[in-house]
Amino acid sequence: MLKVFIDKYKLEKITPHGFRHSHASILFSIPSIDIKDVQMRLGHANPTVTMNIYIHVSKKIKIVAADKFAEITNF
């Protein structure tokens, strides 16, 4: 079913596991969602697994972190 959708819309190939990684990363990029929420959604016993394996630092997250740092330090 996934392959049919990918072929129909000429998308890059992604596995169901790839969707899981993307899902975690997108949730993590939303400031109001805590890592514990993502951990529970993925069914992990602890947040370490979520952070080390499933969360990919996006360009947006890097920019937000830099902006927050500048705001705190008045830099």
From TrEMBL:
<dbReference type="InterPro" id="IPR002104">
    <property type="entry name" value="Integrase_catalytic"/>
</dbReference>
<dbReference type="GO" id="GO:0006310">
    <property type="term" value="P:DNA recombination"/>
</dbReference>
<dbReference type="InterPro" id="IPR011010">
    <property type="entry name" value="DNA_brk_join_enz"/>
</dbReference>
<dbReference type="GO" id="GO:0003677">
    <property type="term" value="F:DNA binding"/>
</dbReference>
<protein>
    <recommendedName>
        <fullName>Tyr recombinase domain-containing protein</fullName>
    </recommendedName>
</protein>
<dbReference type="InterPro" id="IPR013762">
    <property type="entry name" value="Integrase-like_cat_sf"/>
</dbReference>
<dbReference type="GO" id="GO:0015074">
    <property type="term" value="P:DNA integration"/>
</dbReference>
<keyword id="KW-0233">DNA recombination</keyword>
<dbReference type="Pfam" id="PF00589">
    <property type="entry name" value="Phage_integrase"/>
</dbReference>
<feature type="domain" description="Tyr recombinase">
    <location>
        <begin position="1"/>
        <end position="67"/>
    </location>
</feature>
